[in-house]
Amino acid sequence: MAIRLGRTSRQMQAILRWLLAGVYVVGMLCWWWPSYRAWGAWMTAMLALWALWVLWQTHTGDRTVPAHPFCLALTVPLLLLCWHVTRTGLGIAAPTADASQELAGALNISVLWHMALLVVGILLTQSLLPRAAEHAAVLCVCGLAMTAGAAAAAAWAPEAPVRGALSLVGLAGIAVWLTALWGPPSRAADPAMPRRFRRIGCVGVAVVGAVALSAAAPGEALLAGGCAGAALVMTGLLFARHRALLLAVGGLLVVAAAVGGAWVRPDVLAVRWLPETWLGVGEAAFATVGAADSGRMVLGRMTGRVGLGCLLAGGLVALAGLLWAARRRAQTADSDVGRAVTWTVATVLASGAALAPAGSFLPLVTLAVSLTWGLLPAMLGRPSPARSGWPVVMGIFVLLGLLGAARRTGLLAWGTSMFGVGDTFQHAIAGFLAAVMLAWMLGTRHVAGGLIGIALAVAMGAAGEVLQGAFTARAMELGDAAAHAVGAVSAGVPYLLAIGARGCESSEAPEWVPR
Q1: Which pLDDT does position 2 carry in this prediction?
Q2: pLDDT over 70 percentage in the chain
Q3: What does the alpha-carbon distance between residue 354 and residue 453 come to, in Å, rounded to a whole number?
């Protein structure tokens, strides 16, 4: 059982909360171009925050993670990508003269790594940011950062595919901006609305931003209108309050988007929506697709009809399920309906940006998806149930194992190399993460269990090198095993500090009850 939060725990949580909020604001303003430096910065931030979050959980003795239904929708694509990695990306087969073999496994690993970090971002957001969302200023700043980053990209990047995905992110940011008008989600009754001139000013800023983004990408603006209309129809079907208005406005938006899309973008109707295969072809899909293609096409050809279908159907079911669970609370207050509508629209638009052309290659889009999906349960007033952290930890161990066995590590190597980080440092970081997570799972109650976990992490690094040399094309290197061991052993210091900080909890804190 987790210990009650005291003063030290609350301070650690607050530091993590504002660090994550700062990463979102900085990333949305700066990481809107698909450069390796941006991807490396995003990966570094997520891994650092994940390690700090695990240490905070170790301090509180909590071995659970917040459950999110959207993470289940990502499970099947992740499993299919793991299968493609083990089938073609481990370098077991002998290299050929074909130039495409030079990247064998790199793109499979890159997409797998990308989706795994997306899951980590959603879990961190769901755990840390609900209290930050109580402050209207946080939502306003995040919404403005999303809109400003998208507008800057639209102004400085003339490439049409990038403009489309970023315009959807900017429109999602406008929805996030408007969510702050409905007050924090923890209040049981309608909050006092801001002053009239402030409401008019917020709506005016939203209108100006929507017009500017729509002018930059008219086709995506119509798509955004259709997505917003679909979200309004869904909320109208589930919520009894203002049902007629929501259905009417949503239906009009869907019809207008369909008619306008057929006139402005008739080529969309000619797109092949179903992938050619059931299970996909892995990174061989990049023989026919590229960075300018839609995320739906890239993921569909990599994971096939099964992967893409499970992701889309699972996301829709997750969204409908969260709205269904929030319907009773939303029937009692206009603020709950308004907040649910605006944040649902933001979530749908951010998801649409990830499936739009070039959307899966932009760090800003991934940040938007993490923020909107991660805060969706809190915005709907639905508490997140806690689940054991073992499935998440084991999934990360599988990913680390695949990264160690693959002949090419793809996005991880390309992103970190921009900061001068080599293979040795990557092994040290992998050892540190493995040790921290094992110490979290085994040593929250007894220090001996945590030290055993750190020792297991050291042994896992050595065993991994032996297996790598025996069953893959990569040679066994003692230097990599030593770097892994150094990283794992160094995790003992923050682990012991996290355990020792329990003695610093203040008994004066009203919610602190010593065990």
Answers
A1: 46
A2: 86
A3: 37
Both structure tokens of 89 = 């990306």
DSSP state of 423: H
For residues 140 and 167, is the Cβ–Cβ distance under 8 A? no
**C-alpha dihedral sign at 439, 412, 367, 258:** negative
- Residue 159: predicted pLDDT: 58
Tens of pLDDT, residues 222-232: 888 888 899 89
Contact 491, 436 (CB under 8 A): yes
**Tens digits of residue pLDDT in 240-284:** 888 899 999 999 999 988 888 777 666 655 555 678 899 998 888
3-state class percentages of the chain: helix first, strand second, coil last, to nearest 5: 75, 0, 25
How far is the C-alpha of 409 from the C-alpha of 422, rounded, in Å? 12
Number of neighbours of residue 341 by Cβ within 10 angstroms:
27
- Mean pLDDT is highest, among 204-213, 221-230, 451-460, for 451-460
Distance, CA of 451 to CA of 243 (rounded, Å): 57
Are 274 and 305 in contact, with CB atoms under 8 Å apart?
A: yes
Q: ∠ CA(387), CA(78), CA(290), 5° rounding?
A: 145
Burial class (CB in 10 A: 0-12, 13-18, 19+), 265: middle
Q: How many CA atoms lie within 13 A of 115 on its CB side?
A: 25
Amino acid of residue 143: G
What is the distance between the alpha carbons of residues 12 and 14, in angstroms, rounded to a whole number? 5
The owner of tokens 């309004």 is 232
Percent of the chain with pLDDT over 90: 46
Predicted local confidence at residue 494, as pLDDT:
97
Q: Is the pLDDT of residue 320 over 70?
A: yes
Averaged pLDDT, 174-181: 90
pTM higher than 0.85, yes or no? yes
pLDDT (average), residues 110-133: 92
Tokens 């992740």 locate to: 78
Distance CA 441, CA 41 (A): 28
Name the strand (E) or helix (H) holding 65: strand 64-66
Separation of alpha carbons 415 and 404, rounded Å: 16
DSSP of 442-464: H-SS-HHHHHHHHHHHHHHHHHH
Backbone angles phi, psi at 193, to 5 degrees: -70, 155
